[in-house]
Amino acid sequence: MDTARELSAQLATLLRRERSALAEFLVALADFDARRAWAELGYASLFHYLHRELGLSKGSAQYRKVAAELIQAVPAVIEPLRDGRLCFTTIIEVARVVDARNWEGALPRFYGLSRHEAAEVVVALAPHPAPPVRTVLTAVRGPGSAGSTVEPVAPPPGSSRSAALTPLTAERQRLHVTVSERFGRKLERLRDLRPDLSDDALLEAAVDLLLAKAEKRKGALTERPRASVRPSRDPRHIPAHVRREVWRRDGGCCQWRVASGEICGSTHALQLDHVVPLALGGESSPGNLRVLCAAHNLLAARRVLGDALMDRHAVPRARGAP
């Protein structure tokens, strides 16, 4: 059976082939468009040819159309697409601001970025002349309305927890989020109490309070730690001063080392992990503790305690969960 490293090498080879094939397709498509060959076949545009003749979805057809046009204007994008420095999903954003005059300085700024990150570069290079500043509350009819913004409410199945952030300028973004009727009433009350603050300032202040509370609870952070520590009879108990030390040392992010040697760095669902488990005599000391995300904490436990034991205690993962 192939090892994980061998399988990874095979995937890397396939990925290089995929990138190369895509680049070759786009080069050929750019030439096809330059010749207006789609017109000879009876199509009104390259987009219609891609969608109707090649059967691509409208979104896929649009991406490839824009890429073909960009290649004609800036042939230098071909190699970054081929070697993976430029992600294909960012091509729409790249085409907004990169042209034959500025590509040498502008194009490298998009290397290695996601589409959202590329959108942030776009607004930095070409800021919105008058970004809209407004708050719109629209009633949503029907079942499935959002719950309270304070009481934890599980999102509906298939829904996304993340709200959409759209960059407008280097300093401003637009937030799209669905809220409850109770949230709307609370916001109106806040507006009455603090008419000197804009809606985004009110929301940022609320986020700051919740963030400080969450970080304090997770890392036992406090401005006035106790002078003396009361011992606990529970061996699983981690003293607050130890939590603070480990949290600050690890920077509040997962310390698991991935195959490349880098740390995971996730800040999602963080937990304190005993390097030597308590079941094997490990202590709740800074030297035996580290911050891990939930996924790597479970992986660490499996490596030390074995799959058989962990399968009896691990919470089943929901279908579709990462």
TrEMBL record:
GO MF entries: endonuclease activity; nucleic acid binding; zinc ion binding
Matching InterPro entries: HNH (IPR002711), HNH_nuc (IPR003615)
Keyword Cytoplasm: no
Residues annotated as domain HNH nuclease: 241-298
Keywords: Endonuclease, Hydrolase, Nuclease
Tree of life domain: Bacteria
Pfam families assigned: HNH
Cleavable signal peptide: none
Protein name per Swiss-Prot or TrEMBL: HNH endonuclease
Originating species: Anaeromyxobacter dehalogenans (strain 2CP-C)
